[in-house]
TrEMBL record:
Pathway field: Cofactor biosynthesis; NAD(+) biosynthesis; deamido-NAD(+) from nicotinate D-ribonucleotide: step 1/1
Protein name, as recorded: Probable nicotinate-nucleotide adenylyltransferase
Molecular function in Gene Ontology: ATP binding; nicotinate-nucleotide adenylyltransferase activity
EC number: 2.7.7.18
Function as written in the Swiss-Prot or TrEMBL entry: Catalyzes the reversible adenylation of nicotinate mononucleotide (NaMN) to nicotinic acid adenine dinucleotide (NaAD).
């Protein structure tokens, strides 16, 4: 039986319960052996300041540490230039020959897949799993993708985003119940998203 691997990429800036809940739901629905959390090193679609990679890596490790079905994957760290998903999939296929890769993306991400680097190559390298998002309509199939290799999946709806967490921190609002306590403690200890004044937020 080939190993079934989920590939869950993102900036994880910071990682939160929305990521963990949807990843767990996808692992259950797709009967995956493991989900690889792949923090993007140089995400090509992100503009503006981004928390240092080492911090995003550490927060991700802390968040998934107690879940044996989740594993941190720092594969993009050693690759120069923009962190293109197609290159990550190629490298993962080389590292895990025989494994079935399932690239997990949100419906908002898939809607913009035409702007990705070599989007037509993605379904040659992995099956794509498109997760529903609250308030988002199902995106159309990208013309260059094999419909048998793209699956649209409902997922447990979670209305938490990293942007919302950063915005609350900037206003010194509580982020309790939005992300693991260990992650909240880490970002507070390293003053990653400072607000106008410092106080305990979670």
């Amino acid at each position: 039986m080939p190993l079934r691997l989920g590939v869950f990429g993102g900036s994880f800036n910071p990682i939160h319960f929305g990521h963990l809940l949807t990843a767990g739901d996808m692992r259950y629905q797709l009967r995956l052996d493991r989900i690889l959390f792949v923090p993007a090193y140089h995400p090509p679609h992100k503009h503006g300041p981004l928390t240092a990679y080492r911090h995003r890596l550490s927060m991700t490790q802390l968040a998934i540490d107690s879940e044996p079905g989740f594993k941190l994957c720092a594969i993009e760290e050693s690759r120069p230039g923009p962190s293109y998903t197609v290159d990550t999939l190629r490298e993962l296929r080389s590292l895990h020959p025989g494994a079935t890769l399932h690239l997990i993306v949100g419906s908002d991400q898939y809607r913009d897949v035409a702007s990705w680097h070599q989007p037509g190559r993605l379904t040659n390298l992995a099956r794509i799993v498109v997760m529903s998002r609250p308030g988002e309509e199902r995106p159309p199939l990208f013309p260059g993708h094999d419909p048998k290799r793209v699956r649209f999946c409902p997922v447990i709806p979670v209305g938490i985003s990293a942007a919302a967490i950063r915005a609350r921190l900037a206003k010194n609002l509580s982020i309790r119940y939005m992300l693991p306590v260990v992650v909240a403690e880490y970002l507070r200890r390293h003053r990653l998203y400072p607000g106008p004044r410092t106080r305990r937020t979670a």
